[in-house]
Each structure stands twice: as C-alpha cells, then as structure tokens.
Amino acid sequence: MVINGYVVFAFGYSDCSGHFFxxxxxxxxxxxxxxxxxxxxxxxxxCLDACGIVFAPQFVMMDAxxxxxxxxxxxxxxxxxxxxxxxxxxxxxxxxxEFNVEANDTKSVFADMYDMHYASEVEYPTIKTVILxxxxxxxxxxxxxxxxxxxxKLWVNSHRFSRWQVxxxxxxYAATNNPLEQYHRTVKxxxxxxxxSLSELMKNVDGARxxxxxxxxxxxxxxxxxxxxxxxxxxxxxxxxxxxxxxxAVGSVEADLYRVKQSGLRLTAAEKNWFQHLFGQ
Length: 281
Known about the structure:
Structural class: alpha+beta
Number of strands: 7
Order of helices and strands: EEEHEHEHHHHHHHEEH
Number of helices: 10
Strand order of the largest sheet: 1-2-3
Radius of gyration: 21 Å
CATH class of the largest domain: Alpha Beta
Shape: globular
Strand content: 5-15%
Number of domains: 3
CATH architecture of the largest domain: 2-Layer Sandwich
C-alpha cells in the first residue's frame, strides 16, 4: 500500500469466512526483494517472542510481483505461494485491451481460463493441455495469438505465477486478495490523503489497527457466507442468473453434488455504485 506518500506493507492472515487479521505493518523506502525479505526476517522473532508461535504460514497469497515472490521463497521456503485470481483476470483483461483483441475472442480466452481455474487437481493437466493446443493453432502474430502467448508464458507455465487454480486453495479460504482489500478500506478511512510525517503515518496506521480490534471479529475455522455475499446471491437468484441442478444418482446412491450455471448479472447504475462501495472497488 502507499499511504501518505510512504510504502507500507501489511502482513496478516485470513480465515475461512474471508476476514483479514492484521499482524504487523512495515514502512520501507522501496519495494525490493531485499526490503520485503527484511520485513519477513523481522516478523519471525517478534511472533516467537510476543506470541510464542513460529511464523511459517502454509500458504501465502500475493499479486504477481517478482520482489514479493523472491522474498517469500527465500524467507518462507516451506510456504506455498498462491496468486490472487482477481489480479490474474485483471491483468489478462488489460492485455486484451492493449493487443486490441476482439470481444468474442477475449470472451473465449476467459472461458478457457475459467475452465482451468475451476478444474479439479485430477482434471487440470488434461484441460490445460487441450487449451494450450487450441491456443497454439491461432494465427501467428494475430491479436488473439499475442494474448494467449502472454497468458501461457506469465500465468500458465510460469514457475512463479501459475498457482491460481481453486484446487490449490484450502476449502473455504479466499482465492483472491479480497480479505486484504476489504481491510485496506479501513486503512484508507483512518489515513488521510496527502503527505504526512513519519510520526503522523504511524498514528494513522495505528488508528486502523485499533479500528480492526474494535470490530472484535473472531477467527472462523468454518466457512460461512458473509452478508455482502448473501446480498449478491439474493440479487442473482432474483434475476435468474443462477441455475442449480443436482447430479444424477449412481445406482441407488443419491448424489450430494450440484452443478451450478451462472449467467451474467446486469446492474443498474445505482446497483453498480452500491456494489463498488460494498466491495471497496
């Protein structure tokens, strides 16, 4: 985050219900791997001395930032680095605009990416292979080919940024950085715009910390739907955007699996403003 003109890192953890719990803040002059690595090294003894726990998260989620990735690989060698799915799709959308890819072609690429995103661990290798073969047959140097080559290199075959499939994320946990972004709203509220001295920055960030503590949110070990998610679901259900079918029985055994088909939700101008406020975008 950039607050009052300073680079600020917020380390925290999220639960099964998408709540973000801030752990520590750092203010650095730059965002290099060496700077982030120092933050990680400093956090370890603090967690051990103050909380009696070893700071070694099983999973770390981030945007596609080489400095963050390299720092985590070095400082947290046993952690699995996951990519924020929203960041992936946002990047691909920007590249589609940059390469002037036609709307139908862009839609096709996103359909393929969603197929890979929601594939099971068993299905993924086959689905990935089929899609990459399909993409390799697009006309060389065409806008569509340029886009798929970019996606393949950066998001599919990259050893850094290719972990954005749902099967890689523990059940119930966020597949995006949305818990952090929601907390970012709290930080923005308590940190006024414009420049500030370092002491003012510390007071502002501490105000955001106290606000988070005042919410008194308990860590959830079981996934529950948030109020905003339920609001979105009710609106989509009302508009007929969700079709749910129970999978057929196998012999005499009833299936406990459901197939959900989701169509696009068209929002009015008022609804768009409401959702932008709700999701902090």
